[in-house]
Write a structure and sequence with these properties.
Largest sheet: 10 strands, mixed
CATH topology of the largest domain: Pseudouridine synthase
Number of strands: 15
CATH superfamily of the largest domain: Pseudouridine synthase
Mean pLDDT: 88
Shape: globular
Length: about 350
């Protein structure tokens, strides 16, 4: 029998990837999209390069708890280069992180606002109580910024300042880059005067000036402000005077000289006269958080002085016009819900000063 030749042993070649085994690199076209999806593109600034993904997201989306951030990393966060998404994955300076999540079922809010004044440079509206200014974990489309996009499509609308969700009244909006820049500078140099109406509990002095620095407190809500006892807080000053007195309440005019978060509310609480209906600084943080979860139930309404929103109204705004540079004043009267509540209090004097 002839001897068979010995065949050389060929090296094992690596298996070439197929379309089925190649990693899927996401693109904007393949990510979830549509009217029921919240889309957020997050740019990583240079100072955050190298951070853990979960730590970066906590800084960027502070309203979300660490537990919630851990849960969304699995299926709602994407790296643009397709690399694995893990809580400990380092982020890279300059890259964009994509967040895509189902839009929440949002609570009902007032979606109509009256225009108090408008021209090509500015828009002054009468914001209703209950309408959030910007996107939060609970509100996406039911916000003022979303309504402005719907009502004025294609136009640049920059909200020049903020008022709380439950605060009603005058709000100034810049139309275009030049107006926005001018008003930003005007607020920075305190050239804009804001006057609020606040219904408070008890009997504060006829007038006064509250000079009390404030700081963000380390509490569960992550939004509560308080006095800075150590002197390291932000300067905060509010002037006030009493307009009308009732048996157990007073209607005050409040003019903040600074613009800190919740400033008027915290200052009146520190004075011993919290604003009527204030869930956070009147009833307390525990009841406030319950209302966020449950809504304002009849039981909670009793804790909130029988008023579904706090009794703070942005009554008057005086600002230099971006074009003419002349001062303009826009006013909003007390809304019907507050005037109706006040009528139930009964005046202390037979002829109280009328401001409505």
């Amino acid at each position: 029998m002839p001897t068979l030749p010995i065949l050389p042993i060929l090296p094992t070649l690596p298996t070439l990837p197929t379309a089925a085994t190649l990693p899927i690199v996401p693109s904007l076209q393949t990510l979830p999209s549509g009217p029921d999806v919240i889309e957020l593109d997050i740019l990583v600034p240079s100072e955050c390069g190298g951070w853990r993904l979960d730590h970066f997201l906590k800084r960027r989306i502070g309203r979300l708890s660490r537990t919630r951030i851990q849960s969304i990393i699995g299926d709602q966060i994407f790296f643009s280069d397709g690399r694995s998404v893990r809580p400990a994955a380092p982020v890279r300076a300059g890259e964009t992180i994509w967040l895509r999540r189902p839009a929440p079922i949002e609570p009902e809010v007032p979606r109509h606002f009256e225009v108090l004044y408008e021209d090509p440079s500015v828009l002054c509206i009468d914001k209703p109580a209950g309408l959030p200014m910007h996107t939060t974990a609970k509100f996406w489309r039911n916000t003022l910024t979303a309504l402005l996009r719907e009502r004025y499509p294609g136009q640049r609308m920059d909200v020049a300042h903020r008022i709380d969700r439950e605060t009603s009244g005058v709000l100034l909006i810049a139309r275009g880059h030049d107006a926005a820049s001018f008003l930003t500078r005007a607020f920075a140099r305190r050239a804009i005067e804001k006057t609020y109406l606040a219904l408070v509990k008890g009997h504060p002095p006829d007038e006064g000036r509250i000079d009390l620095p404030l700081r963000l407190l380390d509490t569960k809500s992550r939004i509560m402000m308080g006095p800075a006892a150590d002197g390291n807080g932000l300067p905060a000053v509010t002037r006030f005077r009493v307009l009308r007195r009732f048996r157990a309440h007073a209607l005050c005019e409040a003019s903040p000289e600074t613009g800190r978060q919740h400033q008027i509310r915290v200052h009146f609480r520190a004075l011993g006269h919290p604003i009527v209906g204030d869930k956070l600084y009147g009833a307390g943080e525990a009841l406030f958080m319950r209302s966020c979860e449950e809504g304002v139930t009849p039981e909670l309404l009793a804790h909130f002085d029988g008023l579904a929103r706090h009794a703070l109204h942005a009554h008057r705004l005086t600002f230099p016009h971006p074009v003419t540079r002349e001062p303009m004043t826009v006013e909003s009267p007390l809304p019907p819900d507050l005037t109706a509540y006040i009528e139930t209090l009964g005046p202390e004097s037979p002829d109280p000063e009328s401001i409505a």
